[in-house]
Amino acid sequence: MKALPPCLRSASSRHGLVQNHALQRRQQLPIATAVLCSTHSKSGRRSFSVLNRPPPNYPGHVPLTGLERAALAVGSGIVSFLDPYRGDMIAALGEATASPYFIERLRRAMLASPTGRRILRDRPRITSSSLNLPRLRSLPARTVGGTYVAWLDREGVSPDTRSSVRFIDDEECAYVMQRYRESHDFYHALTGLPIVREGEVALKAFEFANTLLPMTGLSMLAVATLRPAERRRFFAVYAPWAVRNGLRGDEVINVYWEEEMETDVDALRRRLGIERPPDLREIRKREREERRRVKEGAAAQAVAS
C-alpha cells in the first residue's frame, strides 16, 4: 500500500481526533443528564439566597431559603399555639413543615389511588360557587351535601375562607396542600366535630393519624390550653377515637367530595372506615345546662337561708 502524502496524513489524523472527541461527548452526555436529573429530583429546587431569589413556580408562590423556612415554622408555630384561631399562621405552619417529605407522601398516596389521580388531573377547587350551596341546601339531610351545608350553616363558616398555598415549591404538591386545606370542613361535617377549640384539637388528632402532616400533630399541643374537664375528655374519648379511625380509615385526601354530594353520609363513613365520635356539641350543651342548674340551685338555697 502506498503511503499517504503528508497533507492527507495530517487531515486523516485531525478527522480521527474529531471523531474520538465527539464519541466521548456522546458518552458523557447521558451521564451528565442523569446527574442533573438526580440532583433536581433530590433537592426539588436549586440553592439560592435572599439576594438571588428564583422566580415563582406558580401564581402566588414565594420561594424560601432553608433558614427562612425554619424561621417561618418557628414563628407561625408560636403564634398558632397562643392564638389557635389565627388561620393564616396555621396555614403558614402547615406549609413550612410539610415540605419536602410529608407533602410528597400525601401526593404519593393520591397517585396510588385511581380517585386521587383523577383529583390531581382535574384539580377541582372547593368554594361556595363551585359547590353551589343553594342546591346543597335542597338535598336530603342524610346526604353528604346536606350534612356539609347544614354544618356550615350551624357553625357560621364559609368554604371561601381558605387561603392560597404560597410556601410549597413544587406546583403539584402545592395543589395537594390546597386540596387538604379546602377539604377540612368536609372532615368536620363527616365527623360532626364543631369548630370550638376542643373540637379542632380532636379533628387535628384524626388528621395527623390519617395524613401524617406535621402541622396537624403540632396543633395537638393546644390540648394544654383546654380546661381540665375538656382535657380529660380528649384523652379518654377523642384521642383514642382519632388514632383508631385515622389509622384504619382510608386516606380522606382521596375523597372526590364534589361527586359524593348525594351519597348517604353514613354509607360514606362505612366505605371510608370512619366511625362518628360522640356528639361533642351535645355533650358541651348538657354540661352547660347542668352548670346552670347547679348555679340556680345554689342561688335558691342562698335566698332561702
UniProtKB/TrEMBL annotation:
It is found in: Mitochondrion inner membrane. Its cofactor is Zn(2+). Component of a multi-subunit COQ enzyme complex, composed of at least COQ3, COQ4, COQ5, COQ6, COQ7 and COQ9. Its main location: mitochondrion. Pfam families: Coq4 (PF05019). It is a peripheral membrane protein. Lyase that catalyzes the C1-decarboxylation of 4-hydroxy-3-methoxy-5-(all-trans-polyprenyl)benzoic acid into 2-methoxy-6-(all-trans-polyprenyl)phenol during ubiquinone biosynthesis. Belongs to the COQ4 family. Residues 285-305 are annotated as: Disordered. Zn(2+) binds at H184, D185, H188, E200. This is 4-hydroxy-3-methoxy-5-polyprenylbenzoate decarboxylase. The gene is COQ4. Keywords: Lyase, Membrane, Metal-binding, Mitochondrion, Mitochondrion inner membrane, Ubiquinone, Ubiquinone biosynthesis, Zinc.
